[in-house]
Amino acid sequence: MLTVVVGLLYLVSGRTVQSQDATGSRFVCNAIPPGAEPGCGYGPTGNRVQTSSPVEDELRNTIIELRETILQQKETIVSQQGTIKELNSKLARCEAAADESSQAKSRGQGSRRKEFGKNTMGDLPRDPNETIDQLGKTMQSLKGRLENLEQQSLRLPGTNMSAGGVSALTPLPPELRELLRQRLGALETQLLRKVAELEEEKSQLYNETATHRQRTESALNSLLERIVELEKSNNAFKSPEDFKVSLSLRTNYLYGRIKKSLPEMYAFTVCMWLKSSASPGIGTPFSYGVPGQANEIVLIEWGNNPIELLVNDKVAQLPLSVSDGRWHHICITWTTRDGFWEAYQDGERLGSGDNLAPWHPIKPGGVIILGQEQDIVGGRFDATQAFVGELSQFNMWDRVLRPVDIMGLANCSAYMPGNVVPWIDANVEVFGGATKAALEICEDRNENIKSQDRDDMREG
């Protein structure tokens, strides 16, 4: 096409310079006014040279028509290229959706549901039925657009001119038509494959949903049965205080913690039930640490030493013995006046003393740990000082209890929860493998007494 235009321009130019010297040794250059067609004759002053040659007029008109034809074909080609790019984009998204679908099959049930909920086509709905309908509509729309392109290609102007000066119609280039057909065929294949995969995924999802529903119902039934068993079982806590804390290993990570802290106190009584056969020494049943003093109150039996009571890091040795593997009731009283203390085991006072941190008030805002001795407040435990055994009914008062009250607690004839720290389930948390279990201490104590009586009869 460009060759024809250049030839025609050359022919017209040749005719306009026939007035030049035949030898070609002299050329006259004339300025062409803006907007004027090249090849048209102009005088030295810029005025157009009039000619009445019909051949030149015909050639001029032909050049104008050819230029318009070229512009129209360029616009058509640009439009077709845009269509091809759009088809390529659709095909790429279909291929990406197919890859994501194949990856989703290799994942578990949760992953498959997550991928199924993704919008893999960019404009597809989440429901499989809507997705299939949308894919069908997209394919039909693409087919219609291709048909429109084919019909438009039949009307594209060609480079041949008819005898009457009207441009002849030529079909779309076969290479472009074949490329469009291949692209549409590949896209249709991808869409059909995606529809088949969605149908299969829909079926699998339905089966998995039914299986999951059945498993969920079975698990709920089992849970309900377990709840009924626990409600009927005697192992559940009948009362908030009927439980024990078990610390079965001598480590630095098994312990219990009392959620409630202490106020400032000028006297206290602490009582508990202990059961241990650890050797040497049962360890630390409890410790109370405050900022600046980790040993504010500590009860410890470490190594071959006797049981010791520490108040403000001052030490008093207690005449107690609880390492025979039986339950024993222990009570310790202390008052800041003269630092006077008393030690009770199973309701009987076994020892007393004074000058244990006299006139020192117990500091508030600390942490009570069961089973470990604190080197800093609430932590840095030493495994060699850990308590090994079971502990229950840890209660604390901000006064000195009477001997009759302590005897009532020891023989289970009285129930007096601590007014500062009561022993209730919600007030005790365990860590590191320590456990809480149901226990009615008085029933277990009676069994221990009967067992001890039988042992004494055998020895007698």
From TrEMBL:
The keyword Calcium applies. Residues 100-109 have a biased composition (Polar residues). Gene3D superfamilies: 2.60.120.200. PROSITE patterns: PTX_1, PTX_2. GO terms for molecular function: metal ion binding. Residues 241-442 form the Pentraxin (PTX) domain. It comes from the Eukaryota. Residues 97-132 are annotated as: Disordered. This is Neuronal pentraxin-2. The lineage of its organism: Eukaryota, Metazoa, Chordata, Craniata, Vertebrata.
